[in-house]
Amino acid sequence: MEEFDQLAAPGYPIFLGSEFEHPKKEDARFHILPIPYEESVSYGGGTGLGPAKILEASWQLETWDGKSTPSDQGIYTHPPVDMTGDAETVVNNIARDTQAIVEAGGFPIGLGGEHTVTYGIIKGLLAAGVKDFGVVQIDAHADLREAYEGNHYSHASVMKRVVDEGIPLFQLGIRAFCQEEVEIRKQHGVYHLDAEELVPNNVCSFDLPEDFPKNVFFTLDIDGMDPSVFPSTGTPVPGGLAWYQTLSLFECVAKQRNIIGFDVTEFAPIEGFHCYEFSAAVLTYKMMGIVERNS
């Protein structure tokens, strides 16, 4: 690995550490939480390597994102979450670390890892006393199965765990789901604009329902974007969102609601193709910029 002079932990450079000294926790708004969890992937692997590679690539970023400088609000990179133990233990570890960030007044940004990690973040928000929030999800898959291959903590079941907590859900860009998930959508009143509605018409904005909570946690699975943009994921599906469309949809939500945190999951680096690692870092930073400018 390239030498980095600022590390959150061995193998984990701090985000954008080439441009500024690591701030004190209390001086940073944005808190990066690496979550290198990879246990239930069902096709290609590599998501456990994603967080470190995104952090490495962030050293090639400019602090000016084209519209503002979100790093001025402070970016603190935490050591990776403890991955030892079974799935329930790891989810609880993620929840504990997220809770600590929120209770200290920070804005949590999870870097996965498989999509299961989102449930840990949601549990952390709940444990920190965050109320009246919904989840907006960009993804190729609905992830609403009760269990997959007998695993209730599967990446294919993460959104079922979320709606089981009574949290409203709005799904964007879905294009791979089973009949069970269609029924679960109906049972839990899951809002959705699927890929076949968004992509052919290049829809870049939409109105959240009036009754959708004022606070939103946004979860972005890399495979929600088209494989032509991000082939670097374990379960690519054709017909996904484009780069600017994805950012526009995120900003559309940020203009309507208060974003209280987000994650970027399911990034699986492809050896020798640094462009995708860099793109994931750019995506993460641009999402910070959108949050900064709309809050």
CATH H level, superfamily name: Ureohydrolase domain
Strand order of the largest sheet: 4-3-5-10-9-6-7-8
Stretches where pLDDT is under 50 for at least 5 consecutive residues are none
Count of DSSP H/I helices: 8
Helix content: 25-40%
**Structure summary, number of beta strands:** 10
Taking the alpha carbons of the first and last residues, their distance comes to 37 Å
Q: Supply Rg.
A: 17 Å
SS content category:
alpha/beta
- Give the topology string: H per helix, E per strand: EEEHEHEHEHEHEHEHEH
Chain-averaged pLDDT: 95
Per CATH, what is the topology? Arginase, Chain A
Largest β-sheet summary: 8 strands, parallel
**Beta-strand residue fraction:** 15-25%
Shape by Cα distribution: globular
Number of domain units: 1
CATH architecture: 3-Layer(aba) Sandwich
At the first level of CATH, the class is Alpha Beta
Family: Belongs to the arginase family. Agmatinase subfamily.
EC number: 3.5.3.11
GO molecular function, one term: metal ion binding
Cofactor: Mn(2+)
